[in-house]
Design a protein that fits this description.
Elements: E1 24-25, E2 34-37, E3 51-53, E4 70-74, E5 89-93, E6 98-101, E7 113-117, E8 120-124, E9 127-130, E10 133-137, E11 141-144, E12 152-153, E13 165-169, E14 172-176, E15 179-181, E16 192-194, E17 198-202, E18 207-210, E19 222-226, E20 229-233, E21 236-237, E22 241-242, E23 246-250, E24 255-258, E25 270-274, E26 277-281, E27 284-287, E28 290-293, E29 297-301, E30 306-310, E31 321-325, E32 328-332, E33 347-351
Antiparallel strand pairs: 1-2, 2-33, 3-4, 4-5, 5-6, 7-8, 8-11, 9-10, 11-12, 13-14, 14-17, 15-16, 17-18, 19-20, 20-23, 21-22, 23-24, 25-26, 26-29, 27-28, 29-30, 31-32, 32-33
């Protein structure tokens, strides 16, 4: 099994392919859905956790909440550079199919989780990379009100935890699973183990508290909230590689339950919710038979607890992000080869 070695060396990769001008619909005999390639991200980047946000922090005279009409990404791994990690914050406006820049993170990070909670954008955890090592897990929690404003330093995570699921649910932020240091060392990928830790952040008193641990400790999973509960999809473990596990957390009961597993065991995937259903995209795999990247996309119906295939991604990727805005899901960044190669700037819109 090569799971622990897959990130030990990150080299420059190929740029993403060119863009087409029209949606790519499924044929009658293919799964449902249509993909449209859009404007590339400002630079190729992988291991990202983008989030929806809004154009302005000022709601004006209206009492209605500001719509989530932008997609924001922060940090990530680049295909080149001294330590190939960035502090850049970029945002995409679907109304203009155009990208812009916001205020950079206080420090460069990769695998930093972005969460929109109560109208603020939070950046949680992630890894620092410098001469001391490339996988220095951080506990930081930063908050931003406006994309051109300044990041605030909030209460950090109780313990180092990264490559986790980080979701807003009921006005709180839930940080679940991922990786934690296995001992005193915290510099390289091999210094970490999987964790089942589950924390929630209360913005009212700027504190993190512990909740019921996730049944399956794992990293590189995807997470979403729908119907008032939290879903954790897929991911991988150090000992066993990719997992197809799907686990559901009920915040009212502080309890976990199992849901139907994914059709394939996928780690490094992304997920988003559209019209009450969950969609999961991409990921990578490693094993004795080789390694690769998934193009598959899946739909999960929480009402029936069933999965089905939908139109596969036209550009297969792992370490990517997926965000719902309006009636579409926007899938961005990642890498076209397993590990650190072929980092992509691709942005594709999925509709169904």
């Amino acid at each position: 099994m090569k799971t622990m070695n897959r990130r030990s060396v990150l080299t420059s990769g190929a740029a993403c392919v060119g863009l087409a001008a029209a949606p790519i619909p499924a044929r009658a005999d293919e799964p449902m859905g249509a993909w449209t390639p859009l404007a590339d991200m400002p630079f190729p980047v992988q291991e990202i956790y983008p989030a929806p946000f809004r154009k302005s922090a000022d709601p004006g005279p209206s009492l209605k909440p500001s719509p989530m009409n932008l997609i924001v990404n922060a940090g990530g791994l680049l295909p080149d550079g001294e330590f190939n990690v960035t502090d850049a914050v970029t945002f995409y406006d679907p109304a203009y199919d155009a990208w812009g820049y916001g205020t950079a993170l206080p420090e460069p990070r990769h695998h930093v989780a972005l969460v929109n909670n109560n109208g603020f954008l939070y950046a949680v955890g992630g890894f620092a990379r410098n001469a001391r090592g490339g996988w220095q897990m951080r506990t930081n929690c930063w908050r931003l009100r406006d994309l051109k404003g300044q990041w605030q330093t909030m209460q950090p995570l109780p313990h180092p935890q990264a490559e986790m699921v980080c979701i807003s649910l009921g006005g709180y932020i839930h940080a679940v699973g991922g990786r934690a240091p296995s001992g005193s060392l915290n510099a390289q990928w091999a210094d970490h183990i999987d964790t089942d830790a589950h924390w929630f952040y209360d913005p009212a008193d700027n504190r993190w508290r512990s909740l019921a641990p996730m049944p399956t400790p794992r990293n590189s999973a995807a997470g979403v909230s729908v119907n008032g509960v939290l879903y954790v999809l897929g991911g991988r473990t150090v000992a066993g590689g990719n997992t197809d596990a799907v686990e559901v957390y009920d915040p009212l009961a502080d309890r976990w339950a199992e849901a139907s597993p994914m059709p394939k065991a996928q780690g490094g995937l992304a997920a988003a919710v559209l019209n009450g259903k969950i969609y999961a995209f991409g990921g990578e795999y490693f094993g004795t038979g080789g390694s690769g990247v998934f193009a598959e996309a899946w739909e999960y119906n929480p009402d029936t607890d069933k999965w089905r295939a939908v139109a596969a991604m036209p550009r297969r990727r792992h370490g990517l992000g997926a965000v719902s805005i309006g009636e579409a899901i926007y899938v961005m960044g990642g890498a076209a080869q397993a590990g650190g190669n072929a980092t992509s700037a691709a942005l594709d819109r999925f509709e169904i």
